[in-house]
Amino acid sequence: MRAEIINEYRRLNSEDQKVFHRWLWTNTIVGAILLAGLIALTFKFTGDETAPIAQTPEINTQTKVSSKAPAALMHATSPRSYRQLK
């Protein structure tokens, strides 16, 4: 397949070869700029991950069920909810 592409390029007239060469260089430059941007973003966000987490207050996500809660809200394996369902 690579040989086919090279042969196709060689069969182009000189003007088309210049246009293809210009297109290839333009894509190379755009790709290099995008790669540099990705590398810059990687370096920017690499060290910042631990700082905000360490400063964030701890949030308690567990909910306490009061003793007056309906049986449907209590855990099914608890003895109290089992007695209420009987």
Description:
This protein has 86 residues and is mainly α. It has a domain at 1-56. It contains four helices and no strands. It has helices at 2-11, 14-46, 50-55, 79-85. The model has no long low-confidence stretch (mean pLDDT 77).
What is the topology?
Blueprint (H helix, E strand, L loop, with lengths): L1 H10 L2 H33 L3 H6 L23 H7 L1
Question: Which short descriptors sum up this protein?
Answer:
86 residues, elongated, mainly alpha
H-E string? HHHH
**Ends: how far apart?**
76 Å
Rg:
33 Å
Structural class, judged by helices and strands?
mainly alpha
Mean pLDDT: 77
Helix content: 55-70%
Distinct helical segment count = 4
* Annotation, overall tally of beta strands: 0
Report the biggest beta sheet as strand number plus sense, adding barrel if it closes. Answer: none
Extract low-pLDDT stretches: none
- Outline, from the CA principal axes? elongated
Query: How much beta, percentage-wise?
Result: under 5%
In short:
The chain is an all-alpha fold. It has helices spanning 2-11, 14-46, 50-55, 79-85.
